[in-house]
Amino acid sequence: MTSPSPKLGALAVVVRDGCALLVQRRNPPDAGTWGFAGGHVEFGESFAEAAVRELTEETGVIATANQLIDTAEFIHRNGQGDVTHHFVLGAVLCVYVSGDPVAADDALDAAWVPLNDIYAKRLPMSDRVDEVARRAEALLTVSGC
User: Fold this and answer.
1) Rounded CA separation 71/13 (Å)
2) How far is 24 from 110, CA to CA, in rounded Å?
3) Which residues face 67 on adjacent strands?
4) Does the domain formed by 10-129 have CATH 3.90.79.10?
5) Hey, CA dihedral for 50, 53, 57, 58, is it positive or negative?
């Protein structure tokens, strides 16, 4: 019997006009929380390709991938300490092209959320959303986008 493996995922980080595009998650382990659109990386797909695809599937928004911001590992455990979910995620800075966010696929809601609201954690958010948003904003400031 083989051991379960961590799941590889990608997040689409889209920042525009002082807001970031977030989705409210439908599925565990973060059901009900807000975070960047994203999902599983398919075999043979890059973080960038997966982020752009998942963004469109979850929100209808079209973007192009710019660069990998960061990777993060999340291990969720139940009350007995057993691992229930294990993800390795690549956060990809994406540049907005077109579309208005509409929740689809496994998102309950999708919206442009002001960065200040993210930093102040005014919504229930997935882990590190504020940190990733700050890094994205810093990259955009440095690159002049």
Assistant:
1) 12
2) 6
3) 93
4) yes
5) positive
Helix (H, G, I), strand (E, B) or coil at 144: coil
Structure tokens at 26: 């439908």
- Give me the pLDDT at residue 143, please: 60
Closest of 76, 82, 81, 77 to residue 126, by C-alpha: 76
Pick from 103, 137, 135, 134: which is nearest to 34 by CA?
103
Q: What angle do CA 118, 139, 127 make, to 5 degrees?
A: 35
Residue 19 β-bridge partners:
16, 114
Q: Taking Cα atoms as reference points, which of 128, 136, 126, 139 lies closest to residue 30?
A: 126
Q: Is 66 left (phi over 0), alpha (psi -120 to 50) or beta?
A: alpha
Q: Give me the average pLDDT of each 10-residue run along the chain (145 residues).
A: 81 97 92 96 97 97 97 92 93 98 93 98 95 95 61
Rounded Cα–Cα distance for residues 105 and 108 (Å): 8
